[in-house]
Design a protein that fits this description.
Blueprint: H1 4-12, H2 29-36, E1 41-43, E2 54-60, H3 63-74, H4 81-99, E3 106-110, H5 115-121, H6 125-139, E4 144-146, E5 150-152, H7 164-171, E6 175-177, H8 181-186, E7 190-198, H9 202-218, H10 223-226, E8 239-245
Parallel strand pairs: 2-8, 3-4, 3-7, 7-8
Antiparallel strand pairs: 1-2, 5-6
Helix pairs in contact: 4-6
Length: 255
């Protein structure tokens, strides 16, 4: 039977690679290549939900990348937040480079997890990865910080098993910016929605809607926010970045 000290040791020195299971590695070189071996790319789900910002992803959600994300999110392999956060930082940089404009502080806004999911897992995966990504961006010379200003305003059903239309309906109006959050964002910087995974894009589209609504309420839209976005939606536009996205979303030819 495992003792508590063995569980603690696995958090610091994992028993196996989070991607392929190779002994004593956070992520082995082969799995790191799967995660970060290619340049992050712009991705788009089909169908694309209204209001979805331009999204960049580090890797397709398959094989070892899928295993690593699930190990971090569902099995509490917290040490994986390191490489996953570095991969997310790369996707953020790709989006900022394509957005143009002068260099400015980067504000990473993680998509919120349901409170019951956070309690069940014992941590908030997107928030933890966003913190690591902000640290990585600062280390590389980009001023960045994480602002967890989004929250659920009502309960939503479990998304697993729902199709894209059902997910949009399930999340419609479900998120809001916490009191004072819009003012923090309006202080300046380039705002990027971040998450560990994008499948249908419904969560990011709802998060973007909530941020746009908050900026309209305060009547003070930062120039860096207003100048970024994708083909859908009106008003304030945002960019987004994720660690992984569904493989089909990588197949869109943007050239």
């Amino acid at each position: 039977m495992r003792g508590w000290w063995q569980d603690l040791t696995d958090l610091v020195l994992p028993a196996e690679c989070g991607g392929c299971g190779r002994a004593r590695a956070v992520l082995c070189p082969a799995c790191l290549t799967r995660l970060m071996g290619a340049a992050p790319r712009r991705v788009r789900p089909v169908p694309e939900p209204p209001g979805l910002p331009v999204v960049h992803a580090a890797a397709p959600y398959e094989d070892e990348v899928r295993a690593a994300l699930l190990a971090h999110k569902e099995r509490g392999a917290l040490v994986l937040a390191g490489p996953l956060g570095v991969a997310l930082a790369g996707a953020v940089r790709a989006g900022l480079a394509s957005g143009g404009g002068p260099g400015a502080p980067v504000l990473l806004v993680p998509a919120p997890s349901a409170r019951r999911a956070v309690r069940a897992r014992g941590h908030d995966p997107a928030r933890r990865i966003a913190l690591t990504a902000a640290s990585e961006l600062r280390r590389a010379g980009t001023p960045a910080r994480m602002l967890a200003v989004l929250r659920q305003r009502r309960a939503v059903a479990d998304q697993s098993g729902l199709n894209s239309r059902q997910r949009l309906d399930n999340l419609a109006g479900a998120l809001e910016v916490a009191a004072g959050g819009a003012r923090l964002l309006a202080e300046g910087g380039r705002t990027v929605l971040v998450d560990d995974l994008m499948t249908t894009g419904a969560s990011l589209a709802e998060a973007a809607r909530a941020l746009r609504a908050a900026f309209e309420d305060v009547g003070d839209v930062p120039q860096a926010v207003a100048g970024m976005g994708g083909p859908n939606g009106t008003g304030v536009m945002l960019s987004a970045a994720v660690v992984a996205a569904s493989p089909s979303s990588f197949e869109i030819n943007w050239n």
